[in-house]
Design a protein that fits this description.
single chain, Spore Coat Polysaccharide Biosynthesis Protein SpsA, Chain A, 2 domains, 11 helices
Length: 295
Amino acid sequence: MKGIILAGGSGTRLHPITKAVSKQLLPIYDKPLVYYPLSVLMLAGIREVLVISTPRDVPAYRELLGDGSSLGMRLEYAEQAEPRGLAEAFAIGRAFLAGGPCALVLGDNMFHGQDLTRVLSRARGRVEREGGAVVFGYPVKDPRAFGVVEFDEGRRVVGIEEKPERPKSSYAVPGLYFYDGGACDVAAEVEPSERGELEITSVNNAYLREGRLSVELMGRGMAWLDTGTPEGMLKAAEYVEAVQSRQGYYIACIEEIAYRRGFIGAGRLLDLGRALGKTDYGRYLISVAREGERE
């Protein structure tokens, strides 16, 4: 399975701080925002990832992440000239996906939780075994700003409505989706919405009409953090700082995840830590590597 990170858009809700830099390159506490969705794909065991951004910002992502070889991965980059909707990611990434299954994650979405790796592995396994698509449902106080899952009395999914005025449930669909190899063909049939965009909800509803959409509900042990506003970014940074300082491990540390998932060895992790100099982040990588060498 391959992954796509959609990190385009103009980030107008964050102006003026995003007038000169991509939103997903802004810091969330001690690391760039894009590290968080990348870490989600890595936790799902995905080693080949396409990063889609604007023509202006692609070079910055390439400079930050490189070709992925230092992490035991393969990273590629593609441009989205204008924000035409999330489903356009499949047209842009068609050659990269080459008809295989994929996970699509939005570049400004942050997930954290003790069971996150298990939830991701289950979703990936289901798509690879059975085909179809898997999306997630996360309980929110006000779901009107999101795609919302509608259930019947038996808790079976009967619809997903984009930004409804009167939501039929409290479960929003976060920006993380798993699809089989037919996603590009399904997306190619999507018509622009009233907003003039190719909506990812249209792709999901197409799978639903065919009886091939599953929804995994995220419970209380999971955190889905909004970074679309300055307040959201501040709260996300405070969350990361609190977890890291109190529990002693780093959230979305892509180098550590690469090591723990077996993409790289302890020696490579040690080199990555030393390359960061006398930073807390570098010292953390060194401590994880040395702990692994002792085991």
